[in-house]
Amino acid sequence: MHIISGYKKNKKIIAPKRDFRPTQSKVREALFNIIEVKDKIFLDLCSGSGAIGFEALSRGAKYCVFAEIDREAIQNIFINAKNIFENENEKYKIKRIAAEDYAKRTNEKFDIIYFDPPYNSKIYETVISLIIERNLLNENGYLIVESSYKYYKKFLENYKYNLKYEIKIYGENVLIIFKNIN
């Protein structure tokens, strides 16, 4: 896996060895063709390898927070950050924390939040509710949720918030793109 575009294009990204599903290159490419990240504050929530956040930084995001609970994944994110952004550690922060805990505790606000928990996870609704209720998105910010094709319809049946959204389907991967229009 590697960074697709930007000033760190082709830099290698290592992923955890077990049970991880890195976001496919075609989905990452599509996402960054839809969402402009230049000069934005970005949160990669349930970061995995950090590929989404590193891609955002390479494409000009001002700052990125990587939040991930898995120990091996966090180690990989630190290695990737060191290899890709050697002397630019002011551009990112890496936190070992569960997504729900991060959403409960942070006082930071973001222009873009990318939330990609394991597809069988039961935290989707809780974390999204916390993000919206705690107003973690800046005005005109985006919350992008990656989900499996099987799950996204069930999730939207229970959706109760006043954020507009659009759905992009890429095979078994679905991006639900919420826009904060406060």
TrEMBL record:
EC number: 2.1.1.171
EC top class named in words: transferase
Gene Ontology MF annotations: 16S rRNA (guanine(966)-N(2))-methyltransferase activity
PROSITE patterns referenced in this protein's UniProt entry, alphabetically: N6_MTASE
InterPro entries: DNA_methylase_N6_adenine_CS (IPR002052), RNA_MeTrfase_RsmD (IPR004398), SAM-dependent_MTases_sf (IPR029063)
NCBIfam families in the record: 16S rRNA (guanine(966)-N(2))-methyltransferase RsmD (TIGR00095)
Protein name (Swiss-Prot/TrEMBL): 16S rRNA (Guanine(966)-N(2))-methyltransferase RsmD
Gene expressing this chain: rsmD
